[in-house]
């Protein structure tokens, strides 16, 4: 459970942190405030207890003096289906809809609801706002979001492309618009443990690589991304896999981990590749090829490109991956400055480049906080 606390008036970040290993052994809370980072271990069995621990820590550290100071809480909710296209104030009806949508995101929506309910119990006065990871992609056209399977399944089960990482892609879209002007044709490569690419026209999602689920598209830390769908039934038959086992293979045992055989973490893969580990080299090449193929295909969909952005853990920190991708786009007149790339400068394209290439740290929490602020400002002022 990640969090950031903002001052509503000044938009200043007061504290941020993360709970890890909730409900597993040695859960920890790492919190940074006033330039200091502390890690504390605590006995947290579930998300409810994590919220309680967070409230107590905020009080103990004097970040807030009273729980009543917290006037709004924003939540990242994975799946908003076709119902939620914008940040939404949480009501009982909204909670029920998020619960219904758990069918489409069984690993995420139930946990998101737990968080919403836990905060509600500790902060009944606060306005709760759900910000959906799918919402940004609701501008996709039918011909991009519809799968070429029997049409009735789209109607019957909602099987279509939804896309994820929408909060991150939207943050990047807003950032680029604010600092460089609204780009007509932009591609954002969000490369983290989960990775996705979004093609944007005039700042709006045009198409994106994640699909009905966040397993689709690029190769990821442990997810395979797009593969021939017949591999699934082949493995089910020949390895005697159940549905759950095949899910595990596709979501937990594939990607960087599956190819390297030792890690899903790009830092480990890059290090091993420099030491001559051939499986790590292969993992790096497949990862980069997938990004190149998708960026290339989205350039065709957009009929050109003005701005290419790299973001998230790998996008922000891996000069190697950025270089591997960019050196295959030189036919478009895209040119990066090696030094700027090594230094992780914000603009890594050279002065000759026909396409701007940017490295921008994503900040989903900031966008969520802004959504909460907007909703609070829309509340009627009590006389
Ligand atoms: P999540 O999708 O969980 O939010 P992140 O956006 O934090 O993930 O990205 C995690 C990925 O970023 C990991 O594969 C990690 O190895 C990679 N990463 C972080 N720092 C570096 C670095 N300096 N060089 C290469 N990869 C990095």
UniProtKB/TrEMBL annotation:
<feature type="binding site">
    <location>
        <position position="364"/>
    </location>
    <ligand>
        <name>Mg(2+)</name>
    </ligand>
</feature>
<dbReference type="InterPro" id="IPR000890">
    <property type="entry name" value="Aliphatic_acid_kin_short-chain"/>
</dbReference>
<keyword id="KW-0460">Magnesium</keyword>
<feature type="binding site">
    <location>
        <position position="2"/>
    </location>
    <ligand>
        <name>ATP</name>
    </ligand>
</feature>
<dbReference type="Pfam" id="PF00871">
    <property type="entry name" value="Acetate_kinase"/>
</dbReference>
<keyword id="KW-0479">Metal-binding</keyword>
<feature type="active site" description="Proton donor/acceptor">
    <location>
        <position position="133"/>
    </location>
</feature>
<keyword id="KW-0547">Nucleotide-binding</keyword>
<dbReference type="GO" id="GO:0005524">
    <property type="term" value="F:ATP binding"/>
</dbReference>
<feature type="binding site">
    <location>
        <begin position="190"/>
        <end position="194"/>
    </location>
    <ligand>
        <name>ATP</name>
    </ligand>
</feature>
<dbReference type="GO" id="GO:0005737">
    <property type="term" value="C:cytoplasm"/>
</dbReference>
<comment type="pathway">
    <text>Metabolic intermediate biosynthesis; acetyl-CoA biosynthesis; acetyl-CoA from acetate: step 1/2.</text>
</comment>
<feature type="binding site">
    <location>
        <begin position="313"/>
        <end position="317"/>
    </location>
    <ligand>
        <name>ATP</name>
    </ligand>
</feature>
<keyword id="KW-0808">Transferase</keyword>
<comment type="similarity">
    <text>Belongs to the acetokinase family.</text>
</comment>
<feature type="site" description="Transition state stabilizer">
    <location>
        <position position="165"/>
    </location>
</feature>
<comment type="subunit">
    <text>Homodimer.</text>
</comment>
<feature type="binding site">
    <location>
        <begin position="265"/>
        <end position="267"/>
    </location>
    <ligand>
        <name>ATP</name>
    </ligand>
</feature>
<keyword id="KW-0067">ATP-binding</keyword>
<dbReference type="InterPro" id="IPR043129">
    <property type="entry name" value="ATPase_NBD"/>
</dbReference>
<keyword id="KW-0963">Cytoplasm</keyword>
<dbReference type="InterPro" id="IPR023865">
    <property type="entry name" value="Aliphatic_acid_kinase_CS"/>
</dbReference>
<feature type="binding site">
    <location>
        <position position="76"/>
    </location>
    <ligand>
        <name>substrate</name>
    </ligand>
</feature>
<dbReference type="InterPro" id="IPR004372">
    <property type="entry name" value="Ac/propionate_kinase"/>
</dbReference>
<dbReference type="GO" id="GO:0006083">
    <property type="term" value="P:acetate metabolic process"/>
</dbReference>
<comment type="function">
    <text>Catalyzes the formation of acetyl phosphate from acetate and ATP. Can also catalyze the reverse reaction.</text>
</comment>
<dbReference type="GO" id="GO:0006085">
    <property type="term" value="P:acetyl-CoA biosynthetic process"/>
</dbReference>
<keyword id="KW-0418">Kinase</keyword>
<dbReference type="GO" id="GO:0000287">
    <property type="term" value="F:magnesium ion binding"/>
</dbReference>
<protein>
    <recommendedName>
        <fullName>Acetate kinase</fullName>
        <ecNumber>2.7.2.1</ecNumber>
    </recommendedName>
</protein>
<feature type="site" description="Transition state stabilizer">
    <location>
        <position position="223"/>
    </location>
</feature>
<dbReference type="GO" id="GO:0008776">
    <property type="term" value="F:acetate kinase activity"/>
</dbReference>
